[in-house]
Amino acid sequence: MHDMLQGWSLWLALIGACVGTYFCRAIGVFFSKRIDQNSEIFRWLAAVTYAMVAALTVRMILLPIGLLDTVPVWIRIGVSLLSVAVMISSPQRRLVPALCTGTLLLVSYGVMR
C-alpha cells in the first residue's frame, strides 16, 4: 500500500510541476504585449541573467565537479581562451563554432589521456 501511495505522489508532483510551469508561461504570453522590452527593469533583468551565466561558467572552469575535475585547470583555461578566440574571430555565426571547438578540444584531451 505504501509503494502505491508513493507512486501516486510522484505522479502528483510531476503533474503539479507541469501545471505550475505552463501556468507561468501562459501568464507571460498573456502579458507580453503590454510589457516594454526596452524598459529599465528588462535591461536590469538581462544584465542579471548575463552575470549569472558568466558566474556559472567561471565556476565550472575553475571549480568543476565530476569528470571535468580530472582535467587540469590550465587545460580548462586554455580551451576556454581558444573558444573565446573563435567567437571573436568570426563576425557571424560564432557561437556554434566556439562550442564545437571547446567540446572537441576537451574530448580530444580525454581520448589522448
- Report the portion of residues in β strands: under 5%
Largest sheet: none
Mean pLDDT: 87
Assign an overall shape: flat
**Residue share in helices?**
over 70%
Q: What count of helical segments does DSSP give? A: 4
What's the β-strand tally? 0
Order of helices and strands: HHHH
Detailed description of the structure:
- The chain is built from four helices and no strands.
- With 113 residues, the chain is mainly alpha-helical.
- The mean pLDDT is 87.
Structural topology:
Layout: H1 2-31, H2 40-62, H3 73-89, H4 95-112
Helix pairs in contact: 3-4
Gist?
By secondary structure, the protein is an all-alpha fold. 78% of the residues lie in helices and 0% in strands. It comes from Polynucleobacter meluiroseus.
Keyword list:
single chain, 113 residues, mainly alpha, 3 domains, 4 helices, transmembrane, membrane, Brnchd-chn_aa_trnsp_AzlD, transmembrane helix
